Amino acid sequence: MVELAIRQAGERDIDALCALIFEHGPNPWNHLPEAEVRAHLQAIEDGSVQAVLVEGDSGGEPLGFVSYRLTRDFARYQPEDRREQLHAYICEAVVHRAAAGQGLGARLLGEAVRRLAGQGVADIYIDRHEQNAASAGMMRKAGFVELETFADPTRRPNGSGRTTVCCLRQGLSIANG
């Protein structure tokens, strides 16, 4: 049985992360404009984007990753008393097709959440195509709660054309936060 290791991604991992997401991420539900995704992952180099990846015990190519950044982009969803605080956005999540269905996405998402908690981040946001059942399940497993679904035809040209925003409030319930 292969042992899996989750670790923080670094500059040396950027090319492999790009290869993984462009080979195993495309589906009718994902919005992956190449230039934007590459620029996003390149920002791992300066630390403005962080990512956790999973790889087999022999190292080598990653089997999956979750990338995230600190932001104020979701301030409208923030509780009034934390509206000005930095929060996090989970940007990309992908698992190699051969490793799909084994819970790696949920494990990676959980690790990203733990690392953000260690940085003092209370509120974490993520979004998905409304009809992406696999992403919805992974997000629920990690404790994310749906906040809003809205028309987003530019990013979501397929199916319902809608985006669902979800949130995890660390140590707080959505009702209280």
From TrEMBL:
Cross-referenced InterPro entries, in alphabetical order?
A: Acyl_CoA_acyltransferase, Bact_Acetyltransf, GNAT_dom
Pfam families in alphabetical order: Acetyltransf_1 (PF00583)
Q: Where is the N-acetyltransferase domain?
A: 4-173
**Which domain of life does the UniProt lineage start with?**
Bacteria
* Entry-linked PROSITE patterns: GNAT
Q: Where are the transmembrane segments?
A: none
Q: Which UniProt keywords apply?
A: Acyltransferase, Transferase
- Name it: GNAT family N-acetyltransferase
**Natural source organism:** Pseudomonas benzenivorans
Taxonomy of the source species: Bacteria, Pseudomonadati, Pseudomonadota, Gammaproteobacteria, Pseudomonadales
